[in-house]
Design brief:
CATH architecture of the largest domain: 2-Layer Sandwich
Shape: elongated
Strand order of the largest sheet: 4-3-2-1-5
Structural class: alpha+beta
Largest sheet: 5 strands, antiparallel
CATH topology of the largest domain: Alpha-Beta Plaits
Order of helices and strands: HHHHHHEEEEHEEHEEH
CATH class of the largest domain: Alpha Beta
Radius of gyration: 33 Å
Number of domains: 3
Oligomer: single chain
Length: 299
């Protein structure tokens, strides 16, 4: 029994396994110590999150290197077998590999970062976490009007960045152009209406227009873009029922609904204050009577 125990303890394979276990424990104890002692002191949530992810990645990298070094003398004879096995595993796990490649693309390609509002895989929401295989999103919209959270947390495979377009609402230009349409009755003071709506846009969204203009200028220097108008502007078109004014303005991507509410509230009050000079229009229907019908009865 003692000889068997001695043989077991002096077995090279057992020694290598013990070396790997001890080495992995040391690596991850150091990683956890660094995370708790230093990384949690970082004030910025985004920088702290990135540092934690990077430190975990370093831990996995050193773990792989340790295992490779310990078993390096055993790998030469298994090259062919590992090649065939690897090809089979790669085929079976192609979605997992694509997701891992997607994670690398997201991390180093600037697709999006935590906190961004994106549309990915048909889902719109704010990025909560970027994992090695999946991105976690707090969903907005669906049965909830506007850009408000609906409470669902969605996990989306990172491989979707290669399959579908990635819409980033808050990347280099965290603003959106939005519009509201105001139907005005024929016979109203159109010039006054246009001035009133333009003033409402400048008053409610004026500060945002100034900030968005600076961001757009930065984009023009970074990319090949033409100059864009970020100030509030009003256009109109006449149709069968009314004159339709369109107020176009720039808004923060998270304040579309609040800004639209503020604009409509001001416009309603300002129009009512004109005492009928400007009147809202509504759909009207004209009922056409049937022609008189004369019926003669033969005796």
């Amino acid at each position: 029994m003692d000889k068997q125990l001695e043989k077991f303890l002096y077995d090279p394979t057992v020694g290598k396994i013990a070396t790997i276990i001890i080495g992995l424990m040391v690596i991850w104890l150091i990683i956890r110590f660094v995370q708790r002692k230093f990384l949690y002191k970082i004030d910025s949530n985004d920088n702290r999150y990135r540092a934690k992810k990077f430190s975990s990645f370093i831990g996995y990298l050193f773990s792989i290197i340790l295992i490779t070094i310990v078993f390096s003398n055993k790998l030469s004879g298994l090259t062919v077998a590992l090649g065939v096995t690897g090809a089979g595993i790669a085929f079976a796990l192609q979605e997992v590999i694509a997701s891992f490649a997607g994670w690398l693309a997201i991390s180093f390609g600037g697709f999006y970062k935590t906190g961004d509002r994106v549309q990915l895989g048909g889902i719109t929401g704010d990025v909560m976490d970027i994992g090695v295989l999946r991105t976690t999103i707090m969903e907005t919209g669906q049965w909830v009007d506007g850009d408000l959270y609906n409470g669902r947390i969605v996990l989306i495979a990172n491989s979707y960045v290669f399959k579908e377009p990635v819409f980033n609402y808050s990347g280099d230009f965290p603003f959106l152009w939005d519009e509201i349409k105001i139907p005005i009755a024929y016979g109203s003071d159109y010039d006054r209406a246009k001035e009133l709506f333009t003033q409402a846009g400048k008053e409610i969204a004026g500060d945002v227009s100034d900030d968005s203009k600076k961001k757009w200028d930065e984009l023009e220097h970074k990319y090949l873009l033409e100059s864009a108008r970020t100030e509030a502007m009003v256009s109109l078109v006449a149709n069968d029922n009314w004159v339709e004014f369109t107020l176009r303005y720039v808004v923060d991507y998270k304040r579309r609904r609040a800004t639209k509410t503020a604009l409509f509230s001001k416009i309603l009050k300002d129009v009512e204050a004109t005492n009928g000079a400007i009147r809202f229009a509504s759909a009207t229907f004209e009922l056409v009577g049937m022609p008189d019908v004369s019926v003669k009865m033969k005796p």
